[in-house]
Specification:
The chain has 276 residues and is an alpha+beta fold. The chain contains 5 helices and 16 strands. The N and C termini lie far apart (52 Å).
C-alpha cells in the first residue's frame, strides 16, 4: 500500500520511467523507417538458366513449374539410395550478398516438410576459405552445416505445417563443437536464438510471402506482412562453451529441406542498403 501511495504522489517518476522505455523504441522505429533498399539480385526461375545462379547440395529433382504467366522452382527432395540417412537437399544461391541485406521470396511446401532458410552463411575467418563453395559436400546431412566449424550461418525454420513453433538458430562455427559434445536435443536447445508461433500450421501447399531483413545485429522476419521475429543477436546467446559472434555483414543464402517431399520457391529478391 505504501508503495502505491508513493507512486500516486510522484507521477513525474512514472513519466520519466515511461520515457526511458519508449525513447529507445521510438529511435529504433525511426531508424527502420529511414531504411532504403535497392535490388541487387532477382530470380524468377523462368528457364533453366537459373542453374548458373544456384547450386544443389544433397539429393533432389529440380523442375520449373508454370502457372499462367508465373513460374516456380519445384525442389523435390529424395532419399539417397546409397545412404538411407541422406534424405535432404540444400539449394544455394551462388551470389554472396554483402552488408545489411533484405531477402524476399514466395514459397510453399507439401505436408510434413522440414524446410529451413539458411542466411548470412560464410566461412570462418580462420578457415583459410574465401567462399562456401571452396569445398564439396557429399550430402546434405545436418552435420555438414551445424557440425562443421569451418563455416557458420543463421538457420530459421519455415513452411512446417505440422509444428506449432519454428526456431531461429546460429549453427556451425564455434557452436559446432556442441553437436559432438552434447545430445542432438541439447544441441538444438543450445543454439536456439528465438522461437516464433508458426503461421504455417495446418496450411500445407499454401503460398507464403517472406521478407527477411538483417540490419547489423538485428534480424527481422515478416511472413505475409506480419512480423514473426524481431531479434538483436549480441552473440554468445548459447551456453558459454558454445558461444558465437553475431553474423553481421551478409553472406550466402539457401533453402533446405530434410524430408523426402517437395518445396516450391519463386520471385526471389535480394536488396542492399542505399541509405548508409
Amino acid at each position: 500500500m505504501n508503495r502505491e501511495i508513493r507512486r500516486s504522489t510522484q507521477p513525474w517518476r512514472v513519466c520519466l520511467a515511461l520515457a526511458a522505455l519508449l525513447l529507445p523504441l521510438c529511435a529504433t522505429a525511426q531508424r527502420t523507417a529511414k531504411l532504403s533498399w535497392q535490388p541487387v539480385f532477382a530470380e524468377e526461375f523462368s528457364d533453366d538458366s537459373y542453374r548458373e545462379r544456384w547450386l544443389l547440395d544433397g539429393t533432389a529433382e529440380l523442375a520449373i513449374e508454370r502457372d499462367g504467366e508465373t513460374s516456380a522452382l519445384k525442389i523435390a527432395t529424395r532419399a539417397n539410395a546409397s545412404n538411407k540417412k541422406d534424405k535432404a537437399s540444400v539449394l544455394w544461391c551462388r551470389q554472396r550478398f554483402a552488408g545489411d541485406v533484405r531477402i524476399c521470396f514466395r514459397a510453399r511446401a507439401q505436408s510434413g516438410n522440414r524446410s529451413i532458410l539458411f542466411f548470412n552463411a560464410r566461412p570462418m575467418p580462420d578457415s583459410g576459405h574465401t567462399t562456401i563453395f571452396d569445398w564439396a559436400r557429399p550430402d546434405a546431412l545436418y552435420a555438414r552445416y551445424a557440425g562443421d566449424p569451418v563455416w557458420a550461418m543463421y538457420s530459421v525454420g519455415i513452411l512446417r505445417d505440422d509444428e506449432n513453433t519454428c526456431n531461429l538458430r546460429y549453427i556451425g562455427g564455434t557452436a559446432a563443437a556442441a553437436l559432438a559434445a552434447v545430445s542432438y536435443r541439447q544441441f538444438q536447445e543450445e543454439t536456439v536464438l528465438f522461437g516464433y508461433d508458426s503461421p504455417f500450421h495446418g496450411k500445407p501447399l499454401t503460398w507464403f510471402e517472406f521478407d527477411l531483413r538483417v540490419i547489423g545485429k538485428q534480424i527481422v522476419l515478416f511472413v505475409d506482412g506480419a512480423k514473426v521475429i524481431d531479434l538483436l543477436d549480441p552473440g554468445n546467446m548459447g551456453t558459454p562453451d558454445y558461444g558465437w559472434a553475431s553474423l553481421t555483414g551478409g553472406g550466402w543464402l539457401a533453402i533446405r529441406n530434410f524430408r523426402p517431399n517437395s518445396v516450391w520457391v519463386d520471385h526471389v529478391r535480394v536488396y542492399g542498403r542505399t541509405d548508409k
